[in-house]
């Protein structure tokens, strides 16, 4: 068994600040930034958040293949981390620069900046996700390795979920400051992961797959990958519907815009303290059983949040803690199982094509995450939510406040339930991995 040194674990994990901040901040603030600061119609704003992600289906797949075929003294993945660092931070700052525009022109400006930022994220994130599967062959060592990553993700989500709303407030100047601060954080995290993974062990296949077509066919015909992609997509969609609704839930259901910060603390807190528990549960229940448990906890907390108008803010925070415990398990197990799928494919095929697997994964994950905002925006539009800007606040009708609540509770709970049901079909267990490893050797 190859044990990954602590220095490399930390060097790899710090790159998760990029993952956490770039996925959380647009998911949390981009919709409300457009509807409540730039006076963009909520349905149009939801579409703008989603459409750049359609490009990811192409960009991420290409980046995955390019990184599979890269030969360098830094390894096949690490050069791409630098490429992403050159593009993403700058484009992120521009997204929230606060142009002197409103309505459709503002939506187009934000959408274009988001498209460029998503391209930079693809250059970084696709190779980054492929690296754990190539650091060790051991089934449980991969979970232990990714435990560090999840801790940094929790810290990153806490930063973006707590600090970003405080900096942004509800003004153009606030969003501009937030964009600059987190653009710098993104840059530092991406560079740190490049330098921190120098000298990482490499146990992947030396021979890349010959063509993109063959790689895509391998991903499409991999039963473990397709089931994992399906169940993780459901989980991600449910989580990002809830994420997009968090500022609205805080403002219109809990009754305080400042509650966005404390609700995020309730969500992220469990991720910081329950990772050892989820590693232990993954060994006791296998990863599939632990994944089912985490989905049930997430779903239960979301359903319970429906009663927030009856029981008040303290109750709302308590049920979000339950969601956070489930979310911690989902995050850890998704990426540990993805690393298993890549390692399994490498053992069976003898080819290096993890980049295409992670490219497809990241493309679908990004599109699904953005679609969460689209679903929540559509829910608000159906409820009659009225767009505004700081100079012209409006009073929302009761139907809009009801849509705010249902959109963050019932809708994500139903989606998560679908993910739980799909998890029962996932069959890449510890026993199966051990058997394949023995057959290969």
TrEMBL record:
Pfam families: MFS_2
Keyword line: Membrane, Transmembrane, Transmembrane helix
Record carries keyword Transmembrane helix: yes
Segments traversing the membrane: 12-33, 39-59, 80-98, 104-124, 145-168, 180-204, 225-250, 262-282, 289-308, 314-333, 354-382, 402-424
Cellular component terms (Gene Ontology): plasma membrane
Top-level taxon in the UniProt lineage: Bacteria
Single GO MF annotation: symporter activity
One Gene Ontology term from the biological process aspect of the record: carbohydrate transport
Keyword Membrane listed: yes
Residues making up the signal peptide according to the UniProt record: none
Name listed for the protein in its UniProt record: MFS transporter
């Amino acid at each position: 068994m190859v044990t990954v040194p602590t220095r490399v674990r930390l060097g790899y994990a710090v790159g998760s600040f990029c993952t956490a901040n770039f996925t959380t901040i647009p998911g949390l603030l981009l919709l409300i930034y457009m509807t409540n600061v730039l006076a963009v119609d909520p349905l149009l704003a939801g579409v703008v958040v989603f459409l750049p992600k359609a490009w990811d289906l192409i960009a991420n797949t290409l980046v995955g293949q390019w990184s599979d075929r890269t030969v360098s003294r830094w390894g096949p993945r690490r050069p791409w981390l630098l490429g992403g660092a050159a593009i993403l931070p700058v484009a992120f700052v521009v997204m929230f620069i606060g142009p002197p525009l409103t309505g459709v022109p503002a939506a187009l400006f934000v959408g274009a900046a988001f498209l460029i930022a998503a391209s930079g994220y693809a250059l970084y994130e696709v190779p980054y996700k492929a690296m754990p599967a190539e650091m060790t062959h051991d089934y449980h060592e991969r979970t232990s390795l990714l435990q560090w990553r999840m801790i940094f993700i929790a810290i990153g989500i806490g930063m973006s979920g707590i600090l970003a709303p405080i900096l942004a407030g509800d003004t153009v100047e606030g969003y501009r400051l937030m964009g600059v601060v987190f653009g710098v954080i993104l840059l530092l995290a991406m560079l740190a992961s490049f330098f921190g993974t120098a000298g990482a062990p490499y146990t992947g296949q030396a021979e890349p797959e010959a063509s993109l077509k063959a790689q895509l066919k391998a991903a499409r015909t991999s039963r473990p990958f397709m089931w994992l992609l399906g169940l993780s997509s459901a989980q991600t969609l449910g989580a990002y519907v809830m994420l997009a609704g968090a500022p609205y839930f805080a403002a219109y259901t809990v009754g305080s815009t400042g509650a966005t910060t404390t609700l995020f603390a309730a969500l992220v807190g469990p991720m910081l303290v329950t990772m050892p528990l989820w590693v232990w549960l993954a060994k006791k229940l296998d990863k599939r059983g632990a994944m089912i448990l985490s989905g049930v906890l997430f779903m239960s907390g979301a359903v319970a949040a429906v009663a927030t108008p009856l029981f008040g803010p303290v109750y709302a925070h308590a049920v979000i803690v339950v969601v956070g415990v489930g979310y911690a398990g989902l995050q850890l197990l998704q990426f540990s199982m993805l690393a298993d799928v890549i390692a399994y494919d490498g053992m069976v095929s003898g080819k290096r094509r993890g980049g295409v697997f992670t490219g497809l994964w990241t493309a679908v994950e990004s599109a699904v995450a953005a679609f969460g905002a689209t679903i929540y925006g559509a829910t608000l539009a159906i409820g009659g939510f009225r767009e505004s800007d700081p100079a012209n606040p409006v009073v929302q009708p009761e139907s809009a406040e009801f849509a705010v609540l249902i959109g963050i509770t019932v809708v994500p709970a139903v989606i998560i339930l679908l993910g739980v049901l799909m998890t029962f079909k996932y069959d890449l267990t510890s026993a199966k991995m051990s058997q394949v490893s023995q057959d290969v050797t």
